[in-house]
Amino acid sequence: MAVLGAGSWGTTFAKILTDGGADVVLWARRPELAREISEARRNSDYLPGVNLPVGLRATSRLDLALAGAEMIFVSVPSQSLRENLNQVEPYLAENAIIVSLMKGVERSTGMRMSTVIEEVLRIDPARIAAISGPNLALEIAKEQPTGAVVSSSSLETAQAVAKLATNRYFRSYVNTDVIGTEFGGVLKNLIAVAIGIVDGVGYGENTKASIITRGLVEMTDFAVAYGAQPETLAGLAGLGDLIATCQSPLSRNNTAGRLLGQGYSINDVVKQMQQTTEGLASVKPVLELARAKGVEMPIVEQVRQVLEGTLNPRDIAPHLTTDSGEPQGERTLDDGQAHGGASLWRAFQRTLDQLRHGGRSAGSPRP
Ligand SMILES: NC(=O)C1=CN([C@@H]2O[C@H](COP(=O)(O)OP(=O)(O)OC[C@H]3O[C@@H](n4cnc5c(N)ncnc54)[C@H](O)[C@@H]3O)[C@@H](O)[C@H]2O)C=CC1
Ligand SMILES: O=C(CO)COP(=O)(O)O
C-alpha cells in the first residue's frame, strides 16, 4: 500500500501501518527526504528523535509508490489535494481504496476531502474512507496508545482499512458517518485556534472550558445541519480530537492561536508556522457553509475577526460580546426549555430551504 505525503502525519501513519504488518511505500515530494527515510530511518524535520521501522520504504517517484497499491492513504495539505490527485490518477490501480488522513476543507469550494477525491478521481464513494481522531502525530510516532475512527459509506471498506490501521499502540474504530467524521476534524481545528488565542492572552481554565464546550455545540450543530450523526461529534473524531488539540502545545492550530493571542499579526504567524495549519484556511469556507444552513458559530466568527485584525484577542469570549445578551439555552436557537422545538424548527427551515432551491440549500458551497 502507499502513503502519499511524508510530513508529520503521513510519515507517522506509514509507521502505524508498517508496525501493523503492512508492506508500505511512503511518497515524499523531495528526493532527499525519501533518501533520509529509506537510509537513515529518520524524518528529522518532522519527527525529531523517532526511529522509523526497518520495513518502511520511501520514494519521491509517484509512479513507483502507486504501482499495484490497493490502498492509498493521502496526507498532503488540503489546499493541494486536488493538484496531487491529478498527478495520482494515471497510476491508480483499478479498485484501489483511497483513504483521506486530512482535516481541512478546500478553500475555493468548501468541499470535504472525500468529496474532492470522489470528484477528481470519479470513483464510487464506497472506495473512499476518511480517518480522524485525537491523533497528534509526534505522540503516536513515539508509540503512545491512541484511538481513531475509520469512516466510509461502505462499512466493509471501513473495516478493511481499520484492520490494517491497527497495531499494538493504535486502534481504529469504524463508522459510516463520513460527514460527521470529516467535519469533526475540520471544526476542532477552529476551536483549537480560539483556545490558543485564550492561552496567548493569558485567560484561565474557565474561559477555555467554556469555549471548548460551546465550541462542541457549534461543531455539532454545523455537522448535523450537513447530515452528520450527533453521536459522531461526541466520539473520537469530535470531542476526542477537540480535547487533544485544545490541550496540546504540539497542535499547530493551537500554537497559531497562541501567537495571535500574544499580539502577532496573521502574516507573522503564517511566516512562523513551519507546518500545515489547516484551521487558518478553513475559517472562511466554514463560515460560508454555516451561513448557508443558518447555523450560528460565534466562536469561529471571533476567530475570523482576530485573524482579520478587527477583534482584539482580549475580547474573545464563548459568545459574541456584541450579541443581545438575551438569555438562551445551550443549544443554538434554543430557548432553554427542555423540548425539541428548536431543533424541529431548524429542521423545518432547512427542508423549506432545500425545497425552494431544488434539493440544494441556498447558495451553498459544496461540502
Ligand atoms: N500532524 C498531525 O498531528 C496530524 C495531521 N493531520 C492532517 O494531515 C494533513 C497533513 O498534515 P501534516 O502531515 O501534519 O503536515 P506537515 O506540514 O507536517 O506535512 C505536509 C507534507 O505535505 C507536503 N506538501 C506541501 N505542499 C505540498 C504539495 N503542494 N503537494 C504535495 N505535498 C505537499 C510537505 O512537503 C509535507 O511533506 C493535514 O490535513 C492535517 O490536518 C491529521 C491528524 C494528525
Ligand atoms: O489533528 C491533529 C490532532 O488530532 C493535529 O492537530 P494540528 O494540525 O493542530 O497540529
UniProtKB/TrEMBL annotation:
Pathway: Membrane lipid metabolism; glycerophospholipid metabolism
UniProt: NADPH binding residues: S8, W9, R29, R30, Y46, K103, A137, R252, E278
Catalytic activity: sn-glycerol 3-phosphate + NADP(+) = dihydroxyacetone phosphate + NADPH + H(+); sn-glycerol 3-phosphate + NAD(+) = dihydroxyacetone phosphate + NADH + H(+)
Stretches assigned to the Glycerol-3-phosphate dehydrogenase NAD-dependent N-terminal domain: 1-156
Ligand binding (substrate): K103, R252, N253
Segments forming domain Glycerol-3-phosphate dehydrogenase NAD-dependent C-terminal: 177-316
Function: Catalyzes the reduction of the glycolytic intermediate dihydroxyacetone phosphate (DHAP) to sn-glycerol 3-phosphate (G3P), the key precursor for phospholipid synthesis.
NCBIfam families referenced in this protein's UniProt entry, alphabetically: PRK00094.1-2 (NF000940), PRK00094.1-4 (NF000942)
UniProt protein name: Glycerol-3-phosphate dehydrogenase [NAD(P)+]
Natural source organism: Cryobacterium serini
Gene (name only): gpsA
